[in-house]
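Newbie here. two chains, one complex. Structure please?
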Amino acid sequence: MRSGSAFHKRTVQPTWCYTRSSYQAINVPLRITKYCAVPRLDNNATTYGALMFQQVPLVEIDGMQLVQSRAIMNYIAGKYNLYGKDLKERALIDMYTEGMIDLLDVIMLWAIETPENKQKQLSNIEQKAKERFMPVFEKGLANSDFLVGNQLSRADVHLLETTLTLQEIFPTILSTFPKIQAFQERMKALPRISKFLQPGSARKPPRDEDLIPTLKEVLSHYYK
Amino acid sequence: MSGKVVLHYFDGRGKMESIRWLLATAGVEFEEVFLTKREHYDKLLNDGALMFQQVPLVEIDGMQLVQTKAILNYIAGKYNLYGKDLKERALIDMYSEGTLDLMELILLLAIAPPEDKQKQLSNIEQKAKERFMPVFEKGLANSDFLVGNQLSRADVHLLEATLMLQELFPTILSTFPKIQAFQERMKALPRISKFLQPGSARKSPPDENLMKTVKEVFSHLFK
C-alpha cells in the first residue's frame, strides 16, 4: 500500500465529507497532495482518464482511481474493518447508511438553494429529520453504544456526521433524542474523531453556497 | 415463513426492478406482494416493517431489508456476484453505481411533467452515449465480463440498463459493438433467458395505470 493517499476534490463538504470522516476515524495517513484547483481538475484529471464517469469525488488509493462515493466508502469501510463482521451486519449497516445519505443529499441540495427557497424548505427538512430519521437511530441505540454489532462501524461515523450537520442548521434538534445525544458525546471522545473535530484538521466547513461559482467554472460545460 | 423471499412493492419496475434482476440471475425464487391501496402501505408502516417509511421492502433470511442499495449489496454478497476481493468489489461498485445512476434518470422520466419529458429524454440519450456507454465498451474490450472474468452484479445491471435504453432509443447500441456482443452472451445465460420470457417476474415499462396507483398509495404526499 502506498504510504498515503491523494484526494482530488474541490472543498465541498457533502459527499466528500463522509469519505474523509471514515478515513480519519481509522487513522490512515492522509497525504493531501492535490486539492482540486479549478484549472488542474479540468485539464489533468479528465485528460488522464482518471474520472470514470467524468465526476468527482476521485480518491487514489492502493493503486486504484476510485470514483462514486459509495464505491469509495464501501472500499474504505471493508478494508479498515468498519463494515460489520458478516453479510447480515453489513446489510443493517447499509440500511442505516443509505437512510443517512438520503438525508444528507437533501441538505446538500438545500444548501445551494436561493435564500428564499431555503427558508421555505427549512421546516420540511426539520420535519423529515425529526419524524423519519432520528427516531430510527434513537431506537437503534436503545440498548447499545453502537448501531450495529456492538462495535464501531461506518454507520456510527455517518450518524455522528449527520447529527453534527443537522445541529449546524437546527441547534436544538437533538433535544428530544437523549440516546443520540449520549452517542454523540461518546463518539466525540474517541481520540481520532476528537482530533478530526479540532481546527486544522481536514474537516471542511459548511460553506457550500460559496462554492457555487467554483463549481460552475469547473463544470462549465454542463451549465450551458 | 423462513426461507421465503418476499418483495413488497408496486406492480411495476421502479426501484425494485434491479433487485428482481439480481435475484433471478442468482436463481433465487421469490414471491411478490403488490401495493395497490393506501391500506397496504399503512399496514407495512404500522407493522414497523419499513425502517424509513419507504419501499422497496424485501423479506429475506429473517430480515426486513429496505433501501435498494442495501438489498442489492446483500444479494450480491450472498450469491457470489460481488467479486472475489475488496478491489474487485470496488470496481464492481464503480460500474454498478454508474449504471444505477443512469437507470434512475430513466425512472424519473415516468414522473416528469409532459413539458419536460422531451428535454429529459435528450439528456438521457446524450449522457448514455457520451458518459456511460464508452466506459462499458472499454470495460468489455478484452473480456466477456466487466470484472474478474466472471459474472457479477455489474454485468446484470449493465444488461438491465442497456435493455431499458433500447426501449427508449432502439439503435443506441449501434456504435458499441462490444456491448452488443455482451448483451447476446448475457441473454443466452439460462436464468437470464428465463427471466426475459413472458410470464416471468420482470415488469413492463411504467404506464399511466402504475402512476395512478402510486399516487393513490402515497396520496398523503401528493396533496
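Moderator note: The CA atoms of residues 72 and 211 of chain B lie 24 Å apart. Chain B has a mean pLDDT of 95. Thread marked as resolved.
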